[in-house]
Design a protein that fits this description.
9-stranded antiparallel beta sheet, 33% helix, alpha+beta
Length: 202
């Protein structure tokens, strides 16, 4: 059900921006949007690219499932699954796993393939369009880099809930969410995912 909702989100974004005007400057396309107007312009550019190239096939979700860690830094894996959904020629492949112990520590890992569709990336990882660095008395959230990939971190020091998400090869979104765990534990789980191998899957 969650995968279907995600699919609906980026399909909606694609429809809304399908007829937007765009530019053909390749170097400009590589730059991050500096404001909301530029972000919308990029959506238009991506929509036009999609209309020219047509939809791309997402990978077999079982290949993504093979990359899920056997355990999460000591937490046993309780379940793992993979799924592929498609509508209007556009698809999403996902693999996910849940890890937990008897003390309430809980970690979820999700690997999603949107086949390089920038509209989908922007819809599912809005932080990829921004530069964020926020700190409060109870935690922080920021955009950063992880092993050369654009990433986003968020952590609450009181609840010990947090997440880290990474974009790989401009098509995969890897997300590790933890509850009642230290941020180092969340990052340790991400370290166990072979991002180089993921980037090579086509």
């Amino acid at each position: 059900m969650k995968t279907i909702k995600l699919l609906a989100i980026f399909l909606s974004l694609a429809v809304l921006t399908w007829n937007c005007a765009s530019k053909d400057a390749e170097e400009e396309a590589k730059e991050e949007p500096k404001n909301g107007l530029e972000a919308l312009q990029k959506l238009g550019e991506e929509a036009e690219r999609m209309s020219k190239e047509g939809p791309k096939e997402t990978v077999d979700p079982k290949l993504l499932k093979e990359l899920l860690p056997a355990d999460a830094d000591g937490l046993k894996r309780k379940e793992a699954s993979s799924e592929k959904s498609a509508a209007m020629g556009f698809g999403v492949s996902t693999a996910k796993a849940s890890y937990r112990d008897d003390n309430g520590q809980d970690i979820d890992v999700n690997i999603t393939d949107v086949a390089g569709m920038g509209v989908a990336l922007m819809g599912m990882a809005a932080w990829s369009m921004a530069s964020i660095d926020k700190e409060t008395e109870t935690g922080y959230e920021k955009t950063t880099e992880y092993k050369g990939h654009k990433a986003f971190e968020k952590y609450n020091t009181q609840s010990k809930n947090g997440e880290i998400s990474v974009i790989v090869a401009n098509r995969y979104i890897v997300q590790v969410e933890g509850r009642d765990v230290e941020m180092d534990k969340i990052k340790s789980v991400l370290d166990d995912i072979d991002l180089d191998k993921l980037a090579d899957i086509k």
